[in-house]
């Protein structure tokens, strides 16, 4: 299997000598949209393009997607960005990717997809988690993988397909993730898998940098089903003429292994040294703290994955639904406001900010548990469901809008509490993602976390992280830290408002009691059973 792992020095000829090419392309293939951006070597985006798509929800807590369509979308986004840039495509010297993690794609020996991709948000595999627990304790599973046992992982999806779709399982040649499939569609031979994303198989030992033979044996899985673990920022191919026609990127441009989207976002936020943490708000939310040495959460509530920098790690907490929950509010509750915004040419989220600013913190006593796609860090309850408490006739759509924004952020606080309680010292928190365009939400984060937070000049940190990976892959940067120093810039800092902090401390206490009451009385389990 051919692997381009050399470092390339790429130049273009000009009259009077040579000068380095100056642009890198990053492609982010997210849960609800693909974004392509072209950057100069100082991290300035010269062009970007975005295309939105959707998920399919065949049953409650089932989430499927069309991987082939998603990758085609990434190609269209790239073509739009290249056209918008007005650059000579030859001046884009490398391309790499950021892709949603923990997506299960089953392909046959010819590379054909056998069934819809199972999303990371999918929680259909509760029974498979029980099957795993019958063979290995949750404690032993965490000892090997540093991942709390949950429906999130691809192992559970492999067991589900094997049990429920045996006719498909018989044809499975490889079980790959979205970036692996993307690299293949973009012209790479073989299946290369980013090491930073491998932990989400539930079969990976992040400290040995290898698949677990014990877990493979326990669940009778052949290692040949899995892709080849590959270091982030490794060149594995070049753009073909056919792909060039679809993307606008010149044939022969190096293609480099990128990162899982949240690992990429951590790089794009500059989380490359101890004491730094990022909080990324996207379809889901994720907190990631850099680890310079092996570390496990003593409470086994947080995840440990491999960092983009080979030989390093990051401690993670994950929220299964974040901006996607707010988007649900936009599409299902605030249809009138959305329609009015569209007619007036106004951004609906700007309209929401204006509405929310008329409502005091605490949303007049409304509280949301945003478990639309189950609860992850630190609750790890696949049967958890969304709930609103405190409704009265005094509440209106503006109160609901604030309630949704606050509930999403309170769950992030719940997640951060687990990371802080692990004993890891954090002294710098950077927030990122589309919601950081809202100054109101940024201040709310500082107030609810009771910590100062920094935004980034480039809010599309995952795309920027992919571009940095592209630069590492061809030797423009010797390592990710060098790429971060060159391309990542901090924006604004927000400090906690003491009065709001006190209120949100009280609201967080109610949040915890509300979750515990519903969980301990079996309400979540009963509702999940009815939905099933």
Account of the protein in words:
With 532 residues, the chain is α+β, with helices and mostly antiparallel strands. The chain is 38% helix and 21% strand. The strands form 9 sheets. Strands 5-4-3-7-16-15 form a 6-stranded mixed beta sheet. The longest helix is centred in the C-terminal third of the chain and has 25 residues, at 397-421. It is globular and about 60 Å long. The chain starts with 10 loop residues before the first strand and ends with a helix.
Compute the CA-based radius of gyration: 22 Å
What gross morphology would you assign?
A: globular
Mean pLDDT: 93
Count of helix runs: 18
Structural class determined from secondary elements: alpha+beta
How do the strands of the widest beta sheet line up side by side?
Answer: 5-4-3-7-16-15
- Strand-residue proportion: 15-25%
Distance between the termini: 44 Å
What is the tally of beta strands? 25
Report helical residue fraction: 25-40%
Low-confidence stretches: 1-19
Most strands sheet:
6 strands, mixed
